[in-house]
């Protein structure tokens, strides 16, 4: 009789699916809003800044409630979110510096890799840092 391989405890496939789903909804809605703002005449950088800020906030709220069922206080969660976002920013900049400036890799490829890598890091940072309560 074959035994079914079980995922390690830290990997929750349903949770990862919900995280990806929240990301798809937030980014899709954000892009639609970006296009609407452009259509009504808002400058593109301001449109991007508005949709980015709204997207970060929406993602935080949805991940907090639907994905991680966080019991961390709202203020603590927001502070942790800011730390996570800064970490992601500096990680992205470090990857670009090392791979593009030092190793002469194409920036377009490095940024694509960086988006994927930082997204995976963000899942684990959300799970174990931003939304982690003392009971975990």
From TrEMBL:
The chain crosses the membrane at residues 12-40, 46-62, 74-98, 110-130. One of its GO terms (cellular component) is plasma membrane. GO terms for biological process: polysaccharide biosynthetic process. It is a multi-pass membrane protein. Its main location: membrane. It is found in: Membrane. Residues 19-130 form the GtrA/DPMS transmembrane domain. Pfam families: GtrA_DPMS_TM (PF04138). Keywords: Membrane, Transmembrane, Transmembrane helix. The keyword Membrane applies. InterPro entries: GtrA_CellWall_Glycosyl, GtrA_DPMS_TM. It comes from the Bacteria. Belongs to the GtrA family. This is Putative flippase GtrA. The lineage of its organism: Bacteria, Pseudomonadati, Pseudomonadota, Gammaproteobacteria, Pseudomonadales.
């Amino acid at each position: 009789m074959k035994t079914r391989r079980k995922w390690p405890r830290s990997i929750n496939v349903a949770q990862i699916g919900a995280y990806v789903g929240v990301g798809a909804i937030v980014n899709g809605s954000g892009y639609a809003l970006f296009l609407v703002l452009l259509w009504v005449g808002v400058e593109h950088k301001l449109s991007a800044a508005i949709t980015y800020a709204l997207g970060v906030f929406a993602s935080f709220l949805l991940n907090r409630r639907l994905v991680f069922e966080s019991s961390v206080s709202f203020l603590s969660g927001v502070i942790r979110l800011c730390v996570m976002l800064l970490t992601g920013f500096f990680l992205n900049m470090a990857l670009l510096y090392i791979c593009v400036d030092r190793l002469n890799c194409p920036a377009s490829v490095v940024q694509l890799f960086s988006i994927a890598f930082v997204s995976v890091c963000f899942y684990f940072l959300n799970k174990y840092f931003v939304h982690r309560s003392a009971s975990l």
